[in-house]
Amino acid sequence: MTTFPRLRTASLTLREWRETDAPRVLKLFQNHSITRMLTSKPHPFTKADAEAFLQKAMPGDLNEYVNWAVELQGEVVGGVGAAPLHETPDIGWWLAEEHWQKGIMFEATSEALRYLLLERELPKIVADAFSDNKGSQALMRKLGFVHTGQGTGSSAARLAGNYPTEEFAISPLDFIAAQQLRVQEAAQ
Questions:
Q1: Which residues sit opposite 79 in a β-bridge?
Q2: Sheet of 146-153: strands edge to edge?
């Protein structure tokens, strides 16, 4: 694959990351409420951290990984990414705190999963969240992910050590079933 998979939903654009996103990334990742739920983003988050994030997130080998900037009304409000695509990929996301619990990440991640599971025909995608990240766990369940167990993980924005995580997986059939359930619930 050589063309970046730009995706659109009713209110969002999922696009490639650009160097010009650095100031927005810096501002968003300076929020400890966001970085403490992620594994690799330190707190405090610096300009150098923003530049390093973008170098890693910008388009590269699209057969290996894909990272989308999530835009709402022309402004980056979060990100979604999955890797390694040649194996069982792990998907992750983050969202500006002022947009939490508004359905934005559900909309963005649904579209990313549709692309990965149905267009790219990946057989399974995994995800995890720290056990205290109830929002991401609820999002995974709503998307159709199945809880597969517990694990541990570390966060560059938390005190050193490992923290409990909840692990999930989703197949194309799980995703389709969740989509169909939402359609049925909306029809009632």
A1: 69, 94
A2: 7-8, 12-15, 66-72, 75-83, 90-95, 125-130, 163-170, 146-153
**Measured between alpha carbons, how far is 146 from 80 in angstroms, rounded to an integer?**
19
Cβ burial of 120 (10 Å; 0-12, 13-18, 19+) is middle
Q: What are 18-40's pLDDT values in tens digits?
A: 999 999 999 999 999 999 999 88
Rounded to whole angstroms, the Cα distance separating 96 from 25 reads: 10
d(CA 159, CA 178): 36
Would the CA dihedral through 139, 142, 144, 150 be positive or negative?
A: positive
Give the global pTM: 0.94
Q: Which residues of the chain have pLDDT under 50?
A: none
Q: How far apart are CA 27 and CA 138, in angstroms?
A: 26
